[in-house]
Every structure is written in structure tokens, then in C-alpha cells.
Design a protein that fits this description.
Keywords: DNA-binding, Transcription, Transcription regulation. GO terms for molecular function: DNA-binding transcription factor activity; transcription cis-regulatory region binding. Belongs to the LysR transcriptional regulatory family. The protein is an alpha/beta fold. It is built from eleven helices and twelve strands. α1 packs across α4. The longest helix is centred in the N-terminal third of the chain and has 24 residues. The protein is elongated. It starts with a helix and ends in a 10-residue tail after the last helix.
């Protein structure tokens, strides 16, 4: 029995498909299947039932999976202690929300490439729910999204936050300085969809002030939200730094009587069972790189 065979068994059992498990290990599906067959040969029993469309664990496989996880954790700890200064190599796939991608993700990638030139970085942009599913399925190594995960299989660390301001176009609000929060019921709320973490702080704000919008206009892109606000299609929130630039240009106005919503906290998330040294290094670089005031194509 080899470490490669145990890795093949563990990731095949915990990823959504053999293809994802093989990709995580940087091998082909046929090589993955070969390692599983070799391990089953050593054990003398099947670990997967392949009668169904997708292979599922046998009772023995279910029983041995926690032991394989413990052995791999010990191996990871051994390798980390033996090679603390060894350069990282291979493939690193991570997911981020659109707000991160439009501000400081390029800075993070530059930091990763500078420190670990042999590491192939593959970023993916999506809403928080998509990133969490990618983590859970084993398709992503880590994710950077708003809020802690509610999924039992995922853990997270707080790395920063972003502040927002209420804004509207001078075309839709004649005197933004004096507009009260209760006026929201007479306007359209331009915002991201319910799957976005930003909506949580908007909902909390509306509950605290006992108001709801007259209409909703939702879109799953920050650039589109900002564009619709500039066109006078409603009121909404934008990241504080972006709002400041657009207000300075005269394209938007601050709603000064609208108290700012609570800051939105961002975390780096990963699977609880993933103990690779890679993740500790990525958490460190993310904490150093985070900056939601960074330049963006939006402005």
C-alpha cells in the first residue's frame, strides 16, 4: 500500500466525481482508477461499488475512509515539518466573488506567482453559493467570499471587510442630502440577487429601519448595478471607495440620511478535511493582499 493509493482513495471518495479527484491529484482518470484497483488488490476487497452510474463506497470503503484521512493528515504534517522551506508546485484552483475579482484578486495572484513561481494558479469567479459548492465537491482548493460558511464540511478564517454607502443618481433624487430612509418605499432598490452575501446586510438594514422598497431590480453583477444606479433606475449601495469616485464625478450622490449598512466581512474558506500546507500559505497571502479600495474596472 502506498501514499499515492491512499490519496486516490480519499479524494475519489470525497470529490463529486472521479474526474475532479484525478484533476486535484494532477493525474488522469485512468491513472486514478489504476491506483484504486491496486489498493483494492492489496486489501483483497472492493472499496467502491461500480454497478451504478457513479461509483459509490462499499461498506468497507465507508469504514476505512476516516482512517485514510488520518493517515494522510499525518503524512501532510510529516512533509510540512520536513520541508517547511520547499517551494510549492502543482495546481491551485480557488474561487472568489465578483467584488474580490474586480479589486484585489490581481494583487493576490501576483503575490502567489512571485513567491511560488512553480504553482499554477487557476482563479474562478462566482457567487458565494457556487464557490461553496466547488469547495464541497473538491473542485476548488479554497474560496474567498462574504461571511462564514454554514456548511459543516467547510471552515473559514476572517481576513477583512468592505464598507458600503447608499447612493442614487441626481436624476432620481433631487435632494439626496435630506432624503430619509422611509423614502425607500417610494423608490426601486437596485441590488445583487438573493444568492449574494451583500443582500444579507441590505435585509438587516431594512429590518432595522422598518422599511422595504417600492420595487426591486436585481442583477448578478456589480458593474451592472453601478450602471443602473448611474442611469437613475433606483437607489442602492456600492462599496465606499467606488461610491466616492462616482460621487466626485457627479454621476451619483450620497444619501446622507441613509445610515451606512454594517460592513460585510470576508473570509477565506476551505474544506475541513484538507490539511495541505498549501492552504496555510494561501491564507497568509490573502490576509496581506486584501484591499477592497484597490483599482477596479468599474470606475
Amino acid at each position: 500500500m502506498t501514499l499515492k493509493q491512499l490519496e486516490a482513495f480519499y479524494w475519489a471518495a470525497t470529490c463529486r466525481s472521479f474526474a475532479i479527484a484525478a484533476s486535484r491529484l494532477n493525474i488522469s482518470v485512468s491513472s486514478l482508477s489504476k491506483r484504486l484497483a491496486e489498493l483494492e488488490g492489496v486489501i483483497g476487497s472492493e472499496l467502491f461499488s461500480r454497478s451504478a452510474r457513479s461509483a459509490v463506497l462499499t461498506p468497507l470503503g465507508e469504514q476505512l475512509l476516516p482512517h485514510a484521512r488520518d493517515l494522510l493528515r499525518s503524512a501532510d504534517d510529516f512533509m510540512q515539518r520536513a520541508a517547511d522551506n520547499a517551494p510549492l508546485a502543482g495546481r491551485c484552483r480557488f474561487g472568489v466573488g465578483e467584488l474580490t475579482s474586480m479589486t484585489w484578486m490581481p494583487r493576490l495572484i501576483a503575490a502567489i506567482r512571485t513567491r511560488y513561481p512553480n504553482l499554477l494558479v487557476e482563479p474562478r469567479v462566482g457567487v458565494g453559493e457556487e464557490v461553496e459548492l466547488g469547495l464541497e465537491d473538491g473542485d476548488l482548493d479554497f474560496g474567498i467570499i462574504a461571511g462564514p460558511s454554514t456548511r459543516a464540511s467547510i471552515t473559514s478564517t476572517l481576513i477583512g471587510q468592505v464598507e458600503f454607502q447608499w447612493v442614487a443618481s441626481p436624476l432620481v433624487v433631487r435632494d439626496p442630502r435630506w432624503l430619509p430612509p422611509t423614502a425607500l418605499r417610494d423608490h426601486t432598490l437596485v441590488a445583487l440577487p438573493d444568492s449574494s452575501g451583500v443582500i444579507r446586510i441590505v435585509d438587516d438594514w431594512m429590518s432595522a429601519h422598518g422599511v422595504s422598497p417600492g420595487h426591486n431590480l436585481r442583477c448578478n453583477g456589480w458593474a451592472a448595478v453601478a450602471g443602473m444606479l448611474r442611469e437613475g433606475l433606483g437607489v442602492g449601495i456600492l462599496p465606499k471607495a467606488w461610491a466616492g469616485v462616482l460621487v466626485q464625478r457627479g454621476q451619483l450622490a450620497r444619501l446622507e440620511n441613509f445610515p451606512a449598512p454594517q460592513p460585510l466581512r470576508y473570509t477565506i474558506q476551505w474544506r475541513r478535511d484538507d490539511t495541505r500546507p498549501l492552504l496555510a500559505h494561501m491564507r497568509e497571502l490573502a490576509q496581506r493582499s486584501i484591499d477592497f479600495d484597490a483599482p477596479t474596472c468599474l470606475i
